[in-house]
Design goal:
This is Cystatin domain-containing protein. Keywords: Cytoplasm, Protease inhibitor, Thiol protease inhibitor. Its main location: cytoplasm. The chain is α+β, with helices and mostly antiparallel strands. It has one domain. Helix content is about 20%, strand content about 45%. It has helices spanning about 15-25, 25-35, and strands at about 10-15, 40-50, 50-60, 65-70, 80-85. A five-stranded antiparallel beta sheet has the order 1-2-3-4-5, with helices on one face. A hairpin with a 5-residue loop joins β4 (about 65-70) and β5 (about 80-85). The longest helix has 9 residues, at about 15-25. The chain is globular, with a radius of gyration of 13 Å. The chain starts with 11 loop residues before the first strand and ends in a 9-residue tail after the last strand.
Length: about 100
């Protein structure tokens, strides 16, 4: 898969690596939403090469779906950038 710096990839099925990135920011997600995530399963993602990597990640929760935006630095640390709530399985992962 060829990547162009600054361009978002197509939506892809998530794997254990993406679940790991989402898990790294789970506490921040729970804090921002003020909810404990008993279900937190990554479904799909998109990525964008910057000075590091941006990820848009679709997550199944106990009451539906959320989209999160995460930045992973070149050193590997993950930072939650934003969250969109009240999403469905069919909602596309559009940059936000």
């Amino acid at each position: 898969m060829a990547f162009i710096i600054g361009k978002w990839s197509d939506e892809s099925k998530a794997d254990s690596r993406i679940q790991g990135i989402a898990d790294d920011v789970k506490v921040a997600v729970e804090g921002k939403l003020q909810k404990k995530m008993t279900t937190y399963k990554v479904i799909s993602y998109r990525q964008q090469i910057v000075l590091g990597m941006n990820y848009l990640i679709k997550i199944q929760t106990f009451n539906g779906y959320i989209h999160i935006k995460v930045f992973v630095s070149s050193s590997g640390s993950a930072l939650l950038r934003d969250i969109q709530e009240k999403k469905t399985l069919k909602d596309p992962l559009n940059p936000f």
